[in-house]
Amino acid sequence: MQTAPQNVAVTPTPVTPVIGETPTGGGGGGGLEQRFAVLDGDVRARGYETFGDRQRVSLTEGQTRELDIELEADKCYAVIAVGDTTVRDLDLFLLDSRGQVLDRDDRDDTRAIVRVCSERAGTYKMRVQMTAGSGAFLYHAYRWPRGTRGPFGLRGLSWVRFAEVTQLLNIDGYEPDPSFAPGDGRLRRQGAAANHTLELPANYCFAIVTVGGDGVIDLGVRLSKDGNALSGDASRDAMPDVRYCTTEAGRYRVDITAEAGDGTYFYQVFRRSGGS
To answer: Which residues pair with 149 in a beta bridge?
Structure first.
């Protein structure tokens, strides 16, 4: 028997299964179309719908290209870029009309994803940098169809990031745990840290989801007990989730660090159905 959760943050929508992701730093085998299909399937599984046309561009190593993207008002978007087999490191930056970086993905791999929630319609710029290697890449924009505001006062990037992670956790059998109230805070500068204490019962699998708002590029999250690190998320983005199956009840500590950028953050505890 499973008790229905009483504090569900997001109502899941039907999704297609997530296509297995390729290892970080590589990009997997197959040609450009196959590589793109992997990330395209993942973005769709998170709840996005395509926006505009897919584009193909080629760059040499060290070259940078800025591309204009027309976005609608009061909508959230994701933009992905995927490099061909000859590309070793592709970085992606999303800028507003003043040239301010809104989001970036400069991980050492051949695919990238950035997000933005636009308050007004206009032209945004996508800067693509061929950091290592050379060749073609495909890029495509996606639109979030479920508004720019959610529960707990979440709005903009905080909301869309939280909804994305929740969608994927639902596929893996995780649901919001009504035993724990969500929390939030502010990291006022890059490198700043905050911590929260959770009393977790034994023999359950938990996921602690943390998302950053505007200005937060990368959050580091670590779960520990009695000073011993148990789990962490080093994915270098602003929407990490730390998963851990407890073997003993007790007080656990969650440390959240602004690895890049600064701003507000929100976290919530999820529990997997059926225990550990």
So the answer is: 155
